[in-house]
Amino acid sequence: MSASTSDYQKEKTHLATTIQKETERINILVTERDKEKQDAEGDAAELQATQTNLQKGIVPMTRVAEARRLAFYSATRALQTSALIAQIDAQRHELESRLDRLDDQRRVRLLEELQNSSVKLAEISARLQAVGEKLMYAGMVRSQLLRGGGDRPTVTIFRGNHPRSSESSADNDSILMPGDVVEVAARTVGQEQN
What range defines the domain where residue 22 resides? Predict the structure, then answer.
């Protein structure tokens, strides 16, 4: 349990730390994107002014081409940063989902282990109760025999491997033969003899 808890805590800490780093990275990229958007807007305004000056004949055509390239580059960088933000945000949401699932999976696994343990405990309790009842009965019979209470046990020998099968009562002096089956029946006080 402690090893499982330790692994769970490590995984949870790792995911939380990674989510925090991704959030910080997104915040940095959002600031950078905003700056790049401002630059792109400034470059677009510069291109517009350069095109106006070209129509007036104040600037050469190369200056317009350079302003166009600069405006296109700025707009592309802003779009790339926006795409990177969206990608990192998707990764962060996946990590958050994994963190939520981690708690749910642990809860399900612990409930399954608890249920299995409860079933095993019930099986063991039932077996212990059955053994306890047998021991109590055996102890009661033994104490009656030692005290002399109750009838003596009935011992019967069944002989089935000889030319004739037979059944006979036995006592301490009876001789057993190979293949004999011995039945011992003990009675408690108050149990009537059949």
Answer: 2-117
